[in-house]
Amino acid sequence: MVIGAVGVTVIGVLTFAAFNVSSLPLIGDGDTYSAAVSEAGGLKSGDEVRIAGVKVGKVKDVDLDGAHVRVTFAIKGDPHFGTRTGASIRVRTILGAKYLALYPKGPGQLAPGSEIPLARTTAAYDVVEAFSDLTRTTEKVDTRHLAKALNTLSATFEDSPDEVRASVEGLSRISRTVASRDKELRTLLDHANGVTGVLAEHTDDFTALLKDGDLLFKEITKRREAIHALLKTSAALGQQLSGLVADNEKELGPTLARLDGVVRMLERNQSSLDRGIKALAPFLRVFTNTVGNGRWFDGYVQNLVAVPPTVRKGDPS
After folding, report:
1. Cα(123)–Cα(162) distance, rounded to whole angstroms?
2. Cα–Cα distance for residue pair 206/184, rounded to 1 Å
3. What is the chain's alpha carbon radius of gyration, rounded to the nearest angstrom?
4. C-alpha–C-alpha distance, residues 71 and 101, integer Å
5. Is the separation of the CB atoms in 108 and 79 below 8 Å?
6. For the segment 83-131, what is each residue's pLDDT rounded down to a tens digit?
């Protein structure tokens, strides 16, 4: 009864711990906080939380809370950030990955469960949206009227000093160049927008590639001493082999010369060797059949005993 009661109690405690593992000390997610931001900017659950560039936690949830977004995050360890701490959503990679940055400020320590108000937070600047806005803005620009206006401005300043006239003429040439390349610029911006979108869709793949490369370089760094020792040993082996060849040059020279003569002789008699191998084949086949039944030779001697004559019916003899 005692053992059964203890076992049931232990199982109950483990079950409770499994369902509340994030709240457990040491192995849990840490203290939970929140921040109110005007726009999520691509931030999602699982993204990093950093203080001065150092990872101190992760984002747990991003939910709409009225007219703004509430970002819930957990902090592990014991980083110090005061009661007036601010937060912003920053771009982590050029492909658009985000993280939540905290800016410690004020006295004391921000209490767990506290929320950073909207006045002390800043939303992210999205690279993809920036290219999209740039494309839409350039599409609305009337390049012909812009070029005409700049040409008019150039004509107005025609009698101005040389420095002003040169500046305006340069501005006019820039306008004409932009107007002449209008289609190409629109196409370029459209393609840039498409490339940015594709890169944003494969952010996880690029992140995994960079992490794998980082692991590779770390492993090479760990094995740097072994690689250095291998290279030094290889160099020493090369020196030993060079010394061995130098010490035995008198013996190796004639040996290699004789070997070269043997090889040349075999090359000259290659056709004879081929014919000999072909002629040897029947002998080997018969020899194998002879000794193939055991530790003896099978032999056959013909006409050792005379064969008695056969008398046929009707034969006069």
Report:
1. 47
2. 30
3. 45
4. 12
5. no
6. 999 999 888 776 678 899 999 998 988 888 899 998 999 887 655 555 5
